[in-house]
Design goal:
The complex is a heterodimer of chains A (126) and B (443). Chain A is mainly alpha-helical and 126 residues long. Chain A contains six helices and no strands. The radius of gyration of chain A is 22 Å and the shape is globular. The chains are: A mainly alpha (126), B alpha+beta (443).
Chain lengths: 126, 443
């Protein structure tokens, strides 16, 4: 009996959930589509850059026995806990510190952390 | 006489020849030719003069060059002497201070000080209440790299919470989230010591304002300590060449304690036992996590983890507290992510026997960029939803469904909006549905 009531509540909650979600998303899409396109151009360039990065990095099975490169390892790891941080955001010295931090926090294998560090330092900011 | 007349004759003949021949010679070298020849000679003379001058100049320049080279040589010698002196002096200084290992300039801690972290502003509105800015948070993380394999990291949380005081008003808190020393012992083992974020599940270790897609933590995380003071060994062992790996963390920490020394159920203090003699017991807790990470392509991966901690929590050392956590995370494409945790704890008590506070949560996110809609701004949006539930084993149960979005203004500047459908019952039931907006920035 208790289960039944809680189930009913769950259902009602669920229906409301779907309805409110739809409204929120619709409102958001309306806001977003109505917005100016200028900022979007810059933004989608970013996204494209990220996408192309993702596209160059197809390791694992496809690469067979070939060792993963720093770029591929960056694509595998650096986007899974948070939005990726671009190489240009930090200096080579800062990257060294940050990669030590990430190696510990994310339990990254040493060799992989070193390859990623090299990859980031090559494209780093100053 | 004969000879005289002969000579005279020859002379006369010569004169005649001379007279007749002279006009012919005049015809061969005329005035014009002569003057042009003269011109030529004069010009060549001038040329020679010019060349001589140039040569003199060249010689002067050469002398000057020689002088400069001499000067440079001298200067170089001096510089070398200065450098040698400096090195000698530095070595002397180093020798004077050699009670400690000397770290070279490029590796000293202050040269490798980096500050990161995040900042948030939250706006909330619960049903039937006025909306307000409920929280402002600044969470700096200080990183000091002392050498290639030593890192000190400390994270603080400075929060201003509105309405957190009885009768209104706000309160500011400064909390230490973690303060740990990491020593990369070798490729497979890192030694961590200090106040550490604990690897119980993954939520705490992977939390920060700019990376949580929903501002509020799952309720069931309250059943676990966020950090602990002690020592930890952690690392990863790669499996094959495809990025697959097994990760591990094992630790010993002071563990939870009782706010009142005894083992009464409600007195468990998960963040306790950090040295306050009033509620300090000598029994440390042990714990760890084993994880398996399997990427089959960049942005396509699965991670599974099992973790736990166990130890006693009352001062008498008779009541144990243990936790077990299962965690999973899945990425399919750069756009879709699903993750979740199941948290089960076991607390022995003086008054209620053994109780089992527990809960779980699952969260999914989809970045609209994956739809390739080419609609302005849409590709910066990620839709998120989460379901979380908890049962505190003291009579309160709460379920919550959260739906919302993350708008990525940049990769580290996020605007989040969420609606939380709350269903809570029991003595500690939580207030109803709430609307939360948050702006987060990763430094």
């Amino acid at each position: 009996m208790k289960r039944l009531t809680s189930f009913k509540l769950g259902l009602r909650e669920g229906v409301r959930l779907v309805a409110v979600t739809a409204v929120i998303y619709a409102a958001f899409i309306a806001f977003a589509t109505g917005a100016d396109t200028k900022a979007e151009d810059a933004k989608s360039a970013d996204t494209k850059a990220a996408d192309s990065k993702a596209a160059d990095a197809k390791p694992a099975k496809k690469a067979g026995k070939k060792k993963l490169t720093g770029a591929e390892l960056y694509a595998i790891h650096c986007n899974r806990c948070h939005a990726e941080r671009y190489a240009t955001e930090f200096t080579p010295g800062q990257w060294k510190t940050l990669m030590t931090h990430m190696r510990v926090r994310a339990n990254l294998p040493a060799a992989q952390a070193k390859l990623i560090l090299k990859y980031l330092q090559e494209d780093s900011g100053n | 006489m004969k000879i005289h007349s002969l000579i005279l004759g020859i002379l006369a003949a010569g004169c005649v020849i001379g007279f007749t021949l002279t006009p012919r010679a005049g015809a061969v070298v005329n005035d014009e030719d002569f003057s042009s020849l003269k011109d030529l000679v004069t010009k060549q003379g001038r040329r020679i003069d010019q060349l001589e001058q140039t040569h003199e100049q060249d010689q002067k320049t050469h002398e000057q060059d020689q002088q400069q080279i001499q000067q440079l040589k001298q200067q170089l010698g001096e510089t070398h002497a200065v450098a040698t002196n400096a090195t000698q002096k530095a070595e002397e200084v180093a020798r004077v201070q050699s009670a400690y290992p000397v770290v070279s300039g490029a590796m000293s801690a202050m040269h490798n000080f980096t500050m990161v972290g995040d900042a948030e502003v939250q706006f909330g509105k619960a049903a039937g209440q006025h909306g307000s800015f409920v929280l402002a948070d600044f969470a700096p993380i200080f990183l000091f790299r002392a050498s290639d394999n030593v890192l000190f990291e400390a994270g603080f949380d400075v929060t201003l919470q509105n309405g957190s005081q009885p009768g209104g008003g706000s309160a500011t808190h400064v909390d230490l989230s973690f303060a740990q020393l990491d020593y990369l012992f070798n490729d497979y083992v890192t030694v961590v010591a200090g106040d550490m974020v604990l690897p119980l599940g993954t939520y705490s270790e992977r939390a920060a304002g700019w990376l949580n897609k929903i501002p509020d933590d799952p309720f069931s995380r309250d059943f676990l300590p966020g950090s602990g003071v002690g020592v930890q060994l952690r690392g990863a062992i790669p499996v094959g060449q495809s990025g697959q790996m097994v990760t591990y963390s094992v630790y010993g920490v002071n563990g939870p304690s009782s706010i009142d020394t005894n083992g009464i159920a409600g007195n468990l203090d998960l963040g306790g036992n950090v040295g306050d003699t009033g509620n300090w017991h000598a029994n440390p807790s042990g714990g760890g996590r084993i994880g398996w990470f399997y990427p089959w392509q960049a942005h396509y991966d699965l991670e599974l983890g099992v973790s736990g901690q166990t130890g006693v929590w009352d001062n008498a050392g008779r009541r144990s507290w243990s936790a077990g956590v299962l965690d999973a995370a899945l990425h399919i494409s750069p756009y879709f992510e699903a993750k979740g945790e199941y948290i089960y704890t076991m607390q022995e008590t003086d008054d209620m026997g053994t109780i089992h506070p527990q809960g779980w949560w699952v969260q999914a996110g989809y970045k609209l960029a994956g739809l390739n809609l080419e609609i302005p701004r849409i590709s910066n949006v990620e839709l998120v939803s989460r379901y979380d539930t908890m049962h505190d084993a003291l009579g309160t149960k709460t379920d919550r469904a959260t739906v919302g979005f993350v708008y990525y203004i940049s990769n580290t500047l996020l605007f989040e909006g969420d609606y939380e459908f709350l269903h809570s019952r029991g003595p500690n039931a939580l207030p109803s549905n709430a609307f939360v907006l948050q702006l987060s920035y990763g430094l």
